């Protein structure tokens, strides 16, 4: 129920990735081209980015639509980054959490976003509360499904799982508890991007000049955009993209992590 985008690569102004493209995230807030659920993403927005020499990202989030923020265009024009994660939100349920409910969520070096919805929330995921400590539950940043899914991912990361295993394990766990959940998750640490396609659209672009973009939908008509198959885990660096099939809910990930990769796409 949102649109999101992540980028790792050569330093760029935020606006070159979010505002200037003909169908960039800024425009997707009111006119997405490939959004299957919802039509307008006006319930908040956020962008997280990494400054040179600082591994901990900064964030700028607001509760309203991005087009109503008169400061964002100036910010996006002058701030440059080697990596970012940004999202515009169409809330599944209205709530009082304001900008706290807007992605990206953050912890340490990580930024996270969830495009989708969990049917039956919150009751459907009540059985998964036991996977979190009391402190984790009491520290939830917002009272929505995305914040809870982030808490599940973060618990796995802190327990030592790699990014891909943490996302894959969480998706399978949530999908088993809430059949029909849409779980397109997006995670970056400033050097890599990890994502899942589960119930909604996901695309990636290996840019000829260097860098990788992963997004809910293409931000322009470049023919090199590639659609990610549903039920797939994507891991990307600045030069390579690896796609791995996700197992069915109820299956158990092996100790080695995800199954054999489907394909590897080098940057052209």
UniProtKB/TrEMBL annotation:
Sections of the chain in a coiled coil: none
EC class name: hydrolase
One of the GO biological process terms: ergothioneine biosynthetic process
UniProt keywords, alphabetically: Glutamine amidotransferase, Hydrolase
Catalytic activity: gamma-L-glutamyl-hercynylcysteine S-oxide + H2O = S-(hercyn-2-yl)-L-cysteine S-oxide + L-glutamate
Record's function text: Catalyzes the hydrolysis of the gamma-glutamyl amide bond of hercynyl-gamma-L-glutamyl-L-cysteine sulfoxide to produce hercynylcysteine sulfoxide, a step in the biosynthesis pathway of ergothioneine.
EC number: 3.5.1.118
Pathway assigned to this chain's UniProt record: Amino-acid biosynthesis; ergothioneine biosynthesis
Glutamine amidotransferase type-2 domain span: 2-268
Classification via CDD domains: YafJ
Region (Disordered): 245-268
Name of the featured protein: Gamma-glutamyl-hercynylcysteine sulfoxide hydrolase
GO molecular function: hydrolase activity, acting on carbon-nitrogen (but not peptide) bonds, in linear amides
InterPro entries associated with the record: EgtC, EgtC-like, EgtC_Actinobacteria, Gamma-glu_amide_hydrolase, GATase_2_dom, Ntn_hydrolases_N
């Amino acid at each position: 129920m949102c649109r999101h985008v992540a980028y790792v690569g050569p330093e760029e102004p935020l606006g070159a990735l979010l505002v200037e493209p003909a169908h960039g995230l800024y425009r997707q807030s009111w006119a997405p081209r490939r959004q299957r659920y919802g039509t307008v993403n006006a319930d908040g927005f956020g962008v997280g980015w990494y400054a040179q020499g600082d591994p901990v990202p900064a964030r700028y989030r607001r509760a309203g639509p991005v087009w109503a923020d008169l400061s964002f265009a100036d910010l996006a024009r002058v701030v440059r980054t080697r990596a970012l994660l940004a999202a515009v939100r169409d809330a599944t349920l209205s709530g009082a959490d304001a900008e706290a409910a807007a992605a990206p969520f953050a912890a340490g070096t990580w930024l996270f976003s969830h495009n989708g919805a969990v049917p039956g929330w919150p009751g459907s995921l009540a059985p998964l509360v036991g996977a979190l400590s009391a402190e984790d539950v009491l520290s939830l940043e917002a009272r929505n499904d995305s914040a809870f899914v982030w808490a599940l991912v973060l618990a796995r990361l802190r327990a030592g799982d790699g990014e891909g295993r943490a996302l894959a394990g969480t998706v399978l766990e949530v999908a088993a508890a809430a059949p029909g959940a849409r779980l397109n998750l997006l995670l970056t640490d400033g050097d890599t991007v990890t994502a899942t396609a589960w119930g909604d659209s996901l695309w990636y672009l290996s840019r000829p000049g260097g860098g990788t973009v992963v997004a809910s939908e293409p931000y322009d008509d470049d023919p090199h955009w590639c659609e990610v198959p549903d039920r797939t885990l994507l891991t990307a660096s600045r030069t390579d993209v690896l796609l791995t099939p996700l197992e069915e809910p109820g299956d158990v990930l092996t100790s080695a992590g995800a199954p054999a990769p489907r394909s590897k796409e080098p940057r052209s």
